[in-house]
Amino acid sequence: MADQPVAQVFSSAGAERGERPLDPEVFGIEPNVAVMHQVVTAQQAAARMGSASTKTRAEVRGGGRKPWRQKGLGRARHGSTRSPQWRGGGVAFGPKPRSFAQRTPKKMKALALRSALSARAAEGAVKIVEQFDWDTPRTKDAVALLEAMGIGGKALVVLSRSDRVAERSLRNLPQVMVTTPGHLTTYDVLWSDAVVFTDDTVGTAGGRVGYDPAEGDFVREDEEGGAS
């Protein structure tokens, strides 16, 4: 992209503070659609439970003896009533517990994330909040801030681990996803209509991708180690 990417800056009260240039290496590259598609597909595949299971003819109950003799009755020959063509028999080639995870190179994940961020920056959908100086968690303050920034759809808010008050204020909103820079993924950016950073997190976006969809499966952990 030829133009310098910029983002609108707001205070935590919703007052506009002007614009700020963004890192062109992260927010100003030409989006690679093919790489984004491959990384998102891998992330969604890793999120699959893979717990579907059926029983084979060796696992179902019964069928210990041959139902009738091999010849002389004019019937088709059978060796067990638990074969797949019988009612109550095993399933041929049915699903078994498995992992759908795909190996994705780290450089490919980093490129896909920068491509997604660049696409949102080109649309003017990247916003920056100077810092969240809220004293107590209030969802009403979060709603007012999003309205002041002109965000009416789905929003991805990237917070540092010290922004606990802001996280508790935003996490109850159904159209808002809260994450940290280390857990920022291509899918999350493409899911959202707007991406909101803080002064602390905007500089770390697009760096080392520490989140591996093959291991995390969309689970994000808070600083105490529990799933959120």
Summary of the model, kept short:
This protein is α/β, with parallel strands linked by helices and 228 residues long.
Polypeptide structure, described:
With 228 residues, this protein is an alpha/beta fold. It folds into 2 domains: 6-49 and 101-216, Ribosomal Protein L4, Chain: A (3-Layer(aba) Sandwich); 54-94, no CATH class. Helices cover 27% and strands 12% of the residues. A 6-stranded mixed beta sheet has the order 2-1-3-6-4-5. Helix 5 links the parallel strand 4 (155-158) and strand 5. Helix 2 (33-46) crosses helix 3. The protein is elongated, with a radius of gyration of 26 Å. The two termini are 36 Å apart.
What is the secondary structure topology, with strand pairs?
Blueprint: E1 6-10, E2 16-21, H1 24-27, H2 33-46, H3 106-122, E3 126-129, H4 139-148, E4 155-158, H5 164-170, E5 176-179, H6 186-191, E6 194-198, H7 213-216
